Amino acid sequence: MKKLATTLFIAALLLPLTSLTVSAAGGAHVEHSGANINDTASLQRGAKWYVNYCLGCHTISYMRYNRLAEDLDLTEEMVMENLVFSDAKFGETMDIAMDEEQAKAWFGKTPPDLSLIGRSRGVDWVYSYLLGFYKDENGGWNNTLLPNASMPHILWPLQGIQTPVYRQEAGEGGFTREVIDHFRLTTPGTQSPEEYRQTARDIAAFLDYAGEPAKLKRKGIGVWVILFLAFFTFIAYLLKAEYWRDVH
Ligand code: HEC
After folding, report:
1. How confident is the model at residue 137 (pLDDT cuts 50, 70, 90)?
2. 55 C-alpha vs ligand 1 centroid, how far in Å?
3. φ, ψ for residue 96 (rounded to 5)?
4. pTM attached to this predicted model
5. Which residue has the higher pLDDT, 87 or 34?
6. Closest residue by CA, ligand 1 atom 1
7. Top mutation candidate among 49, 63, 151 for ligand 1, by most atoms within 8 Å of CB
8. Is the CB–ligand 1 distance for residue 203 below 6 Å?
């Protein structure tokens, strides 16, 4: 029994490490997003971008509208007016009516449910993915983190169109290869680059929240636990001083 407990304990310690390596293996260039799950305004904006631009293809089937309302400080009316465009009811999950077979025929792939994307790929990955769309030489959309992604850059009217500027890099065996050095914004979008970063950050934060709604509460509780521990340490210290006074 003790052995099992020790194993579980060690596994729990190592768990964050494994998820770290998984997201690091995502490749290309993952930027720090600064997405903040405790920023309710950011989550609200993220939800709005999501239903307007993503939900048409990607369900978040673990999320219910009424749960969203509760966690994001929204009333039922606000949710039904601003976030529900289908005939879904308040208590229903954020599903879509898209036919999977048809989607596959259109995109070559069924757009995945994004309920757990914040956990599987990580928020920073999602953020960087939304910044990583570009028009390649063939005039098609491509993505630095998901090469040849079959998802069109749905947010391009906001971000604009960026094209890559390449540089030569020494590869194996004395060969040089072309890698993307940076992007040039060839067609500006309706948002400035900074505004677009914020949009991507909001969506990433929303998906982080959607992957684990309980995180909001857990983090809130965490603060109290730390405060309690600090307070308790203080009391223990006073007590120790009291005991030792007679001994000295
Ligand atoms: C027109 C349909 C469509 C829309 C709209 C759309 N996507 Fe996608 N998305 C796809 C498809 C198809 C894929 C699969 C790409 C692939 O694997 O090649 C995908 C893949 C993804 C992935 C990568 C999943 C993974 O782990 O491989 C993320 C993240 C993602 N989409 C986020 C979004 C977000 C955020 C939005 C809204 C801003 C959005 N998508 C809007 C079709 C869409």
Report:
1. confident
2. 10
3. -125, 165
4. 0.80
5. 34
6. 57
7. 151
8. yes
**111 Cβ partners below 8 Å, 6+ apart?**
57, 58, 98, 103, 151
Pairing mode, strands 93-94 and 60-64: antiparallel
Phi, psi of 142 (to 5 degrees): -140, 170
Quick check: CB of 131 below 6 Å from ligand 1?
Answer: no
pLDDT at 183: 94
* Domains, the chain, ordered by start: 2-212 (1.10.760.10)
Nearest CA to ligand 1 atom 2: 57
Model pLDDT, residue 179 = 87
Tell me which residue has its CA closest to atom 3 in ligand 1. 57
- The conformational region for residue 174 under phi > 0 = left, psi -120 to 50 = alpha, else beta, is left
Quote the ligand 1 centre to 150 CA distance (angstroms). 8
**Token representation of residue 121:** 């790929």
- pLDDT for 8 equals 57
Sequence letter at residue 209: Y
Determine if ligand 1 sits within 6 Å of the CB of residue 150. Answer: yes
Bridge partners, residue 183, by sequence: 164
CB of 129 closer than 6 angstroms to any ligand 1 atom: yes
What pLDDT is attached to residue 103? 83
| 226 conformational bin, left if phi > 0, alpha if psi -120 to 50, beta if neither | alpha
182 forms beta bridges with 165
> What's the pLDDT score for residue 107?
84
Q: What is the mean pLDDT of the chain?
A: 87
